[in-house]
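Record passed on here:
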Amino acid sequence: MTGATLDGQCPLAERVLRAIERDGLIPRGGRVLAALSGGADSVALSVLLAAAAPAGGYALAGLLHVNHQLRGGAAEADESFCRALAGALDVPIFVERVDVAALARADRISIEHAGHRVRYATFERVAGEQRADRVATGHTRDDLAETVLLRLIRGAGPGGLAGIRPRAGRVVRPLLGVSRQELREHLAARGLQYREDESNRDLRVTRNRVRHRLLPLLAREFSPSIVGVLAREAAIARADADWLDGVANERAAVVVSYDEGGADVDAEALRAEPLAVARRIARMALERVSGRGRTGFAHVERLLDLAASPDAEAGAHAGRADFPGGRVERRGGRLLVRPAGSGRPSPPPAGGFEYRLDVPGEVAVPEAGVAIAAEPATTMPAPLRARGALVAVDAGGLTPPLAVRSWRPGDAFRPLGLGGRKKLQDFFVDRKVARGARGTVPIVTDRRRGIVWVVGHAPAEDFRVTDGPAGVLILRSRKLGGLG
């Protein structure tokens, strides 16, 4: 996409195209769906993506509208408006109607949480059905600033303060460098209408209070450019968090081992790590064993406290700590992390998962709490650890797109450096991967040649790098978090 330009005069569309190009948001020749609520941001997103498509070398495959059925006649009017816009842009529209209030009651979660869950599940399903490479959302620089403030208020480290990522799996956000005001001015200059959602002014919702009270206060009393400042801080935090996560993934292979019952943590080795890395290793162990994401700071600190306390001081209760989904127990120089009710290990989840992985591209694997990315190497990579979050493989024999899936009975491959062929089940036993965790280990596969990488454990010998950088593919795993 390098060097693409737009015909005609549309500076904002040029900026969006540059963002798509810079962040690799939509592959050339790819298909993208635009998530459309009917509000100004999503309307602007739809028309800007349509304008930039010819120069960008991608296709706007359609608009995607989720009717939450929360506002009666207003919700129906929103849907009608979105259908009309799709007609004006001459693209198909895909509409999902969900009773979000009923879902929230059934799952005992907030309406906001239920709506978020419905939207992103719909994005994944419809994108798969329509063979779309990406789903674009209308998140703006203002949304990014609000998210940073919300996470700061609630408590977050660099990963949380990174805010909204430009890309998370199939979902991309081409407007993160554009303000809401710029989008409204763009629509007004072209006489384009949009729908106002009155619920966005409901000050009982925390985000709305941040939007309508806190940010204006900060801009008025402290810094007129506060939105830009927060967006810049998010970019810095994102780069720092990505680097720290990579280091923690590497060190976790030394500090933590997994067996049939859970995780075994070397307390002394954990204490020796820098605190920022130790916290990430502790969180990884707790989340992997429990099968739950978003382990709280207090539970991570309790595990680190257990690692720091001499075993002689750890009495019958002092040497244990419960956390959601499990327990940590100090035994000698080890910390045993066990899932709740771990008398018998649970089998891998039925059904498993499978996602398409484009080259280049990235896909979210929510079952494993990670995103897997693939990109051709531009330089010959330095030696990499087979058990890390980053591997280099020979691209010569691959047939993209690849797949990322869970293991299946009968799976086998030749682990790098081990010579012979091994059943994946036996490989997991050798690596002491807890039985309950095996079903969430992502496996990158090629449709012709089978397993390419058992993520976090080993690439296949069949894809050992032998050529120069033109024949090398970099595969990377990163932890998912919040808005990506």
